Amino acid sequence: MRANDPTAEPLHVGPWEEGPRGLPPACYTSPEFYARETERIFRRDWLCVGRVDEVGKPGDYLSLDLLGEPLVIVRDGAGEIRVLSRICRHRAMPVVSGTGHARTFVCPYHTWTYALDGRLLGAPEMSQTPGFDLAGCRLPSLRREIWEGFVFVSFDPQAPALGPSLTGLATLCRNYDLADLTTVRSVAFDMDCGWNWKLMCENFMEPYHHIGTHRHSLEPLMPARRSVTLDPDGPYAVVHMRYREGDRSPEPDRWGASALPVGERLSEEERNRATLLHIFPTGLLTLLPDHVEFYRLFPEGPTRVRLEKLICVPPGVATRATFEAEMAQMVKGFRAIRDEDVAICRAVQEGLSSRFAEPGRLCRLEKAIWQFARYVAARVADGAR
Q1: 0.90 surpassed by pTM
Q2: Which of 120, 158, 293, 357 could be a cystine partner for 137, CB 3.0 to 4.6 Å?
Q3: Cα 98 from Cα 295, distance rounded (Å)
Q4: Residues 228 and 374 in one domain
Q5: Pair 184, 295 in one domain
Q6: In a 3-state reduction of DSSP, which class is residue 321?
Q7: Mean pLDDT of the 44-58 span
Q8: Structure confidence at residue 190 (pLDDT)
């Protein structure tokens, strides 16, 4: 192992009262550490991969690649959502790609045909093959769990159920009616995202950088100094931020603060704040008074991540006569903020390779980074849960 390999000795992320710090820089650059994360985090914990309404009708499917595994989210004929391998059991050809609607999955190589629940329905000329059992052959299925309209998967058959660990978070989100939201936009990060997955999570959750990176964009909308980080009782972090200082004027502004209707069940406090959620390890959500944003985040190596942002609104909002113009303004504002973050994440990733980089003292506005660091350190500490 290299001398700076953080897997060579246990990580220590001490109590906040000791003077909070984050993870060592090598945790963001080391291939050995990423391999440890893959083994002990990504292949054991629950990963958020999408929204149920992305596959709204029986036959709808969405392909994705997660940790090098080609998968497909599909709603089968009985209406159940499944997450299947999309690799044919014959010669490893992907049986489907992209998004769409299908009655069956037909491998383009030799036309082996699978039901939407993964069962093999037909395999031409295979009846005379010794030992071949049509009924015993199917596309492998991953464990999946639906939480508030979000689809989570786990590669671990023994992973504890997700729902009980998020009971407190479900209560906090109750008035947003997350399960009923409609996904109306997908905005890809159509550029090279050459930074570590944890750096993306940290940048998302800490408002401290608003005063520098976003001082003309997000800082006027969500002042960093007004943020409050909660102490949750589960595998997640929560940051509340004042949103527009209570200003809900109907005119959209250049940074994407829209004029969509505010959620009907929100309290007065919820109507005037944004809430950042990080469901460990990769689930990133922003709860706003008039919509919810979800980042589909897939790690692709120690210094690379794939990102996509989904925008979700309450039922009926998309039928407004002004909706398309409002969405165009929102996406335009998001792209401007996104580009600010991309520049910062790239620069920080480069800086983390410096011999002088170290885990500096964290500000009170970065408490969510410390919470996340403790989660990562605990997960990679040993092979046990």
Answers
A1: yes
A2: 120
A3: 19
A4: yes
A5: yes
A6: coil
A7: 98
A8: 84
